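Subgroup meeting minutes
Present: P.N., E.W., G.H.
Scribe: E.W.

1. P.N. recapped why we're keeping a running log of single-chain structure predictions: easier to compare across weeks, and new members can see raw inputs and outputs side by side.
2. G.H. added today's entry (139 aa).
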Amino acid sequence: MNKSIRFLVIAIALIAIAIIVGFKLYSNAGEAETAKALISSSLGEERLEKDLIKKVTEDLRLLEKAGSASFVEELSIDEDGTITYIIPGGEGLREEVKVRKESNGDVVLDIQEGDLYNELTITRSGKLLMNGKDLIVDE
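Output recorded in log:
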């Protein structure tokens, strides 16, 4: 199975699991606590800044829409302030996910796994696109 098909199957499986299992939405306090724990374990307690906690909390909400929030194990921050969320993958690989919000309200997840890159877009209307094409999830 080539890498792009394998990645698509993994992405669809994660989304299907999220839909079928129906992840509980974090309460606002719970979301902030989850963000604090992730920041603290990844970067150290000295990085628990209000703006960073708010950004990570918002990103985790968006990642939850894609069924990935509960799989995030760590994060890193680039020199330019871009946050990368690390999600362990199969066969010792790991996904690096960056969240960006477009001016039209769409949310784009830039997903890098090894040398494979994909974009998962969650439109304002809730539609899912993988690399610009409709992503259909069968239950």
